[in-house]
Amino acid sequence: MTIACDVVALYVVFVALDVFPSVWVAFMGFVLAMAGLAVVSVPGGGGSFEVILSVYLMSRGLDKAQASAGAILYRIGAFWLPAFVSLFLFAQFRRRTKEIRAVTAEAGAVRPARADGRRQSPAASAARAARAPHMPWTPPPGGVDAEQR
């Protein structure tokens, strides 16, 4: 389903450029470009997606400028735009988390530390305290029988 949506998005980019390749050409170009990404070991493809897609589309009769513009516009919308939006949202999340921690520390609600030195939420502390008698296993007051060893 994901491939179908990506192919439709690629085709819509070409329609926006007033170029009308067949859906099969758009599908095969996308599949070949994704296969090329599997071979290239550069984060984000390093432009190989655009090159492979453009070359394939040019071999199918599209003009060099149209094929390159379509590939680049598709890649901007499908890869770079979501990447920048995610980066912005992650920065907002980190900022908000620091604000919440600062308010919590000012209120005196210091959370107990875990064994690894990190702190945990009060809800997690309560849940852990409720499980504490069961984890880790402790021998019964009389000790372990020889048969149980």
Give an overview of the whole structure.
With 149 residues, the chain is mostly helical. It has a domain at 2-80. The protein has five helices and no strands. The protein has helices spanning 2-16, 23-39, 48-59, 64-106, 122-131. α1 packs across α2, α2 (23-39) runs antiparallel to α3 and α3 packs antiparallel against α4 (64-106).
Low-confidence stretches: none
N to C succession of SSEs: HHHHH
Overall mean pLDDT stands at 81
Outline type: elongated
The main β sheet shows up as: none
Report the sheet-strand fraction. Answer: under 5%
Cα-based radius of gyration, to the nearest Å: 28 Å
Structural class of the secondary elements?
mainly alpha
Oligomer: single chain
Short recap of the structure:
With 149 residues, this protein is an all-alpha fold. It contains five helices and no strands.
List keywords for this structure.
single chain
Q: Helix and strand layout, with pairings?
A:
Blueprint: H1 2-16, H2 23-39, H3 48-59, H4 64-106, H5 122-131
Helix pairs in contact: 1-2, 1-4, 2-3, 3-4
